[in-house]
UniProtKB/TrEMBL annotation, chain A:
This is ATP-binding cassette domain-containing protein. GO terms for molecular function: ATP binding. The keyword Nucleotide-binding applies. InterPro entries: AAA+_ATPase, ABC_transporter-like_ATP-bd, ABC_transporter-like_CS, P-loop_NTPase. The lineage of its organism: Bacteria, Pseudomonadati, Pseudomonadota, Alphaproteobacteria, Rhodobacterales.
Automatic annotation (TrEMBL), chain B:
It comes from Salipiger mangrovisoli. Keywords: Membrane, Transmembrane, Transmembrane helix. This is ABC transporter permease. Pfam families: MlaE. The keyword Zinc does not apply. The keyword Transmembrane helix applies.
Length: 248, 268
């Protein structure tokens, strides 16, 4: 469904992506792992068109994602941002129903609110949260609202950017379980970037490791622990010594 | 020998530095121009987001009234005192109503309102949009199929273009009222005569130039806030820099535009 071929991207002459290639089959959940600064977020932003790659090709269902109707393409996506990225000035329900209140998916306000409350319920939040402002919510609740917003317009593809960053282990487990449930229930194609191994084990059908701007290894999540790749082994076991240089 | 080479290279190095600065300035001017054109094109093309537009009208227009009113009131009063004491040196105390009117409407009203809007609105727009940028809310807008130029910039620019001329008009009236209050209560002017002199002396071109300046200054204030916010750097420092740069740039551009517009309206 999503195919990246030989993607390159540099910022001010510093290469971040150096020929990343990847395939995400329809309906699967792929998790990209890798250390900080390896280009995971840039890869995601290239697919969404938030960053323009220097070279390479991005295809979604065989179509070049950089050409054609961008709005139509984006309407197929949902995204959960690292910091939730909720709009401060809008109450929770309007954040969730943002897409349903404007643009081609616009619904009557009452219907949009009902859908927002239903999506909030799906992520474990009650209707009493609907009229609060994002700043009045805890980090875990904000993540849930972000998740509700990501699924509100029933997208085909959902991206999760570091979904458990900043959460305590219990709340991280709750968010991981929610993501897994929603991905399975909706049958969506999911692409997650994280360096949290508990997320990887909870969410992934397949795992890809990005290192130095390239996909170093990829395979089914069940094969990850057994792979002899020293980079993957160092990363998943959190070892300070190995082929991945760590600043001390 | 070495000193000679250094001396010979110094003019070239200075020219190089100057050249790079000029190229940077031209590049920034070009980017700002393209940004302004894109913003205007988004105003002209639907959809315009009504909620964001009305919120901008409220924030830029209505909520700026107290600060604009206070600024104009005290400036008008001080102007009356200055003209009276200055005019007394050559027996021209009687010109207070005329000079207050012309000073407020042609110059002080638009400039002071423009600068107050730069301080209050430009900084607020820049800080808000820059914070949205560093917290990925702008990226979130894009992923929700919403163009940030249309959702954030166009409503604010249109609201500023419409409300700042009105604020200038209000500022002009309040400034004249401030002069009137001081002149009639402390300087011994006849109230009816003061008003008659004020109205007789002002011409339609004075009012027109005041409103045109307000429109231009409003556009500059909103554009600079949006531009610096959208191009903010990372983190709290990035937001701080964007806010500071937006106010500095808006204030300087407002004063430059005031000079140009004054030349256009009154150079003949």
């Amino acid at each position: 469904m999503i195919t990246l071929s030989d993607l390159h991207k540099s910022f001010d002459g510093a290469p971040v992506l150096r020929g990343a290639s990847l395939h995400v089959p329809r309906g699967s959940s792929l998790v990209i792992i890798g250390g900080s600064g390896t280009g995971k977020s840039v890869l995601l932003k290239c697919i969404l068109g938030l960053v323009t790659p220097d070279s390479g090709r991005i295809e979604i269902d065989g179509q070049d994602a950089t050409r054609g109707n961008r709005d139509a393409l984006l309407s197929r996506f949902g995204m959960l941002f690292q910091g939730a990225a909720l709009f401060d000035s809008l109450p929770v329900w309007q954040n969730v129903a943002f897409r349903l209140l404007r643009g081609p998916l616009k619904r009557p306000r009452r219907v949009a609110r009902e859908i927002a409350i239903e999506k909030l319920r799906r992520v474990g939040l009650g209707p009493e949260v609907a009229d609060r402002l994002p700043a009045e919510l805890s980090g875990g609740m904000q993540k849930r609202v972000g998740l509700a917003r990501a699924i509100a317009a029933e997208p085909e593809i959902i991206f999760f950017d570091e979904p458990t960053t900043g959460l305590d282990p219990i709340m991280a487990g709750v968010i991981n379980a929610l993501i897994r449930e929603i991905v399975t229930e909706m049958g969506v194609t999911a692409l997650t970037i994280t360096h949290d191994m508990s997320s990887v084990r909870a969410i992934a059908d397949r795992v890809a490791m990005l290192h130095a701007g390239k996909i170093r290894w990829q395979g089914p999540s069940g094969e990850m622990d057994a792979t002899p790749d020293p980079y993957v082994q160092q990363f998943i076991h959190g070892q300070a010594t190995g082929p991945i240089e760590a600043l001390r | 020998m070495s000193l000679g080479r250094t001396l010979a290279a110094a003019p070239a190095a200075a020219l190089g530095t100057l050249g790079r600065a000029v190229i940077r300035a031209l590049g920034a001017a070009g980017r700002l121009t393209l940004f302004a054109l894109a913003a205007v094109s988004h105003i002209l093309r639907p959809p315009l987001y009504p909620r964001e537009f009305f919120m901008a009208l409220l924030h830029i227009g209505w909520l700026s009234l107290p600060v604009v009113g206070m600024t104009a009131l005290f400036t008008g009063g001080a102007l009356a005192l200055q003209i009276y004491s200055g005019g007394a040196r050559f027996n021209a105390e009687a010109v207070v109503p005329q000079i207050v009117a012309i000073g407020m409407v042609r110059e002080l009203g638009p400039v002071l309102v423009g600068l107050m809007i730069a301080a209050r609105v430009t900084s607020s727009i820049a800080a808000e949009i820059a914070t949205m940028k560093v917290t990925e809310q702008i990226d979130a807008l894009v992923t929700l199929s919403t163009d940030p130029m249309k959702y954030l910039v166009a409503p604010r620019l249109l609201a500023a273009l419409l409300t700042v001329p009105l604020l200038v008009a209000v500022g002009d009236v309040i400034g004249i009222a401030g002069g009137y209050a001081v002149a009639t209560s402390a300087l011994g002017f006849n109230p009816i005569g003061y008003l008659a002199n004020t109205l007789d002396f002002l011409e339609p071109l004075d009012v027109l130039s005041s409103l045109a300046k307000g429109c231009a200054f409003g556009g500059i204030a909103a554009l600079m806030g949006c531009y610096c916010g959208m191009h903010s750097g990372r983190g709290a420092q990035g937001v701080g820099r964007a806010t500071k740069s937006s106010v500095e740039a808006a204030a300087i551009l407002i004063l430059a535009a005031n000079f140009l517009l004054t030349g256009v309206f009154f150079s003949a």
